[in-house]
Amino acid sequence: MDKFDVAIIGAGPGGSALAYALKAQNLKVAVIEENLWGGTCPNRGCDPKKVLLAAVEARRHSAYLVGKGLQSAPNIDWPALIKFEKTFTDPVSDGTKAGLKKAGITVIDGSVKFVDNHTVLADQTKVIADKFVVATGARPGLLDIDGKKHFRTSTDFLKMTNMPHSVSFVGGGYIAFEFAAMAITAGAEVHIIHHNDRPLKAFAKADVNQLVSQLEEQGVRFHFGVDISRIEKNADGYELVSAQGFSLQTDKVFCTAGRVPNDDTLDLDKVGVEFSKRGIKVDDHLQTTAKNIFAIGDVVDKSQPKLTPVSGFEAQYLAESFAGETKAIQYPAIPTVVYGTPRLAKVGVGAEEAQTQKNNYTVQNFDLTGWFTYHRLNEPLAHATVITSKKTGAVVGASLMSGEADDLINYFAMAINRQLTPENLKQTIFAYPTAASDLTYLM
User: Fold this and answer.
1) Following CA atoms 116, 122, 124, 129 in sequence, which dihedral angle do they give, to the nearest 10 degrees?
2) Cα angle at 22 between 17 and 24, to 5 degrees?
3) What is the per-residue pLDDT for 340?
4) What is the three-class DSSP state of 5?
5) How much is the pLDDT for 1?
6) What integer pLDDT is reported at residue 252 of this predicted model?
7) Which of 270, 264, 315, 283 is nearest to 138 (CA)?
8) How far apart are CA 230 and CA 58, in angstroms?
9) Angle at Cα 177 formed by Cα 338 and Cα 370, nearest 5°?
10) Nearest 5°: CA angle at 405, between 403 and 406?
11) Is 426 left (phi over 0), alpha (psi -120 to 50) or beta?
12) For residue range 383-402, what is the model confidence (pLDDT) as tens digits?
């Protein structure tokens, strides 16, 4: 095997984007992948999730308008929906690999282990490189309880060909709320079990409470303060049991208690790369504790959200860094979304942080339910919180809850990153009537 300038371990969105960028610099690049080329997002993550949500949201929005122009809401044909989803996911791996090869990038299949700082083994293939970039992402974590072998994961949910009568999600993160919204709309009995009373900790408690209330109205059952200690398989499915006496019978149980970095099989200790339970440690140049080994994406121990576009941003930065750029990475304000019903989105400074610094920030809350944008859809809840700097007047944070929150939050991200004030925004004429045209009334 020839020596490479850069070998990238992991062919997800971040690793692939970096490979193309480095190839454009005429570097000799290899990409190594042990599983599906293309990574989690297009194969078993955000992309297939959004395909399923298309039908789920069509039914939900139709239900809002029953008696107001529509006679009934359509039922979801889950098997047909999964079949449609597969038209998106099935071509991804082969297409990603073929695209890299066509660009002149060497592609290698295999599970990677470091031999020394300049050598890895991909199964039996030796790969030598001046620099390595670890972009191996993360996988669903499983709680270490009795019967954990009975847990299913997000990957299983997204390829489940039939919706069970009842499904339960253990863990109160993004995935639990999103999959619960899908399953309840598809007709299942749905339970979310969380070990304390504070799910979705990255969001303001008041917003989360409203989202919980909306899902409860749709039929989702929440069990807070419950620590599941074991799962028992029986003739009717599975029984979930806690040491405190809680018991629940369910057809399928999914662990939605977070994700773990894919760094535990690489033999990183052999090359002096430090890592924690949260991932590989890097500096502000994405360099690990081994000077020629770098890391990007969800495998990194970082405070920023572990999202596909963040991986892409890091790939772009690292390509520029390898080309001679010396500045440390600076992350912009990053929007993040829970695709529940309704959607919950946030970016920048949060309301709870702003409330503790009242001399620095102004916090405005808006009930948007009666605004034309949402009232015409008969949405039951629409809400916004906008935070501005008292010193500059610029927008510094926002949280949104509505069916359109995932689109509108991007405008707030742009306003924050460009340090726009309400006066700046009023110099833009938005198409009307759209959610964007509400911006000038929200600031």
Assistant:
1) -50
2) 100
3) 92
4) strand
5) 61
6) 98
7) 264
8) 37
9) 60
10) 105
11) alpha
12) 999 999 999 999 999 999 99
**What is the helix (H) or strand (E) element at residue 8, kind and residue range?**
strand 3-9
Answer whether 220's CB lies under 8 Å from 169's CB. no
- Do residues 127 and 53 touch, judged by C-beta distance below 8 A? no
Which residue matches tokens 């572990």? 306
C-alpha gyration radius of the chain: 23
β-sheet bridge partners, residue 107:
31
Tens-place pLDDT, residues 247-283: 999 999 999 999 999 999 999 999 999 999 999 999 9
C-alpha distances out from residue 363 to 152, 209, 343, 369, 390, Å = 41, 19, 21, 19, 10
Which residues lie across from 146 on neighbouring strands? 230
Q: Tokens at residue 339, please?
A: 């695709």
User: What residues contact 370, with CB distance under 8 A and at least 6 apart?
Assistant: none
Helices (H) and strands (E) in the chain, counts: 14, 23
Judged on CB neighbours under 10 Å (0-12, 13-18, 19+), 436 is middle
Nearest to 364 by CA among 382, 387, 345: 387
What six digits make up the tokens of 433? Answer: 């009537």
What is the torsional sign of CA 47, 48, 49, 50? Answer: positive
Cβ-count burial 141-175 (b if 16+ within 10 Å, e if not): bbbebebeebbbbbbebbebeebbebbbbbbbbbb
What type of residue sits at position 304?
A: Q
End-to-end Cα, the chain, rounded Å:
59
- CA–CA separation, 289 and 282 (whole Å): 7
Q: List per-block mean pLDDT (blocks of 10 residues) for the chain, which spans 443 residues.
A: 92 98 98 97 96 95 96 96 97 98 98 97 96 97 96 97 97 97 97 96 95 97 97 97 95 96 96 96 98 98 96 98 96 97 96 93 96 96 96 95 96 94 88 92 86
Q: Which structure tokens are listed for 209? A: 């409470």
Write out the H or E segment, with its range, that includes residue 168.
strand 166-170
Tell me the C-alpha distance between 122 and 120, whole Å. 6
The DSSP line for 209-263 is HHHHHHHHHHT-EEEES--EEEEEEETTEEEEEETTS-EEEESEEEE-S-EEES-
User: Whole-angstrom Cα distance, residue 4 to residue 127?
Assistant: 8
3-state DSSP assignment of residue 320: helix
Beta strand 237-242 pairing with 247-250? antiparallel
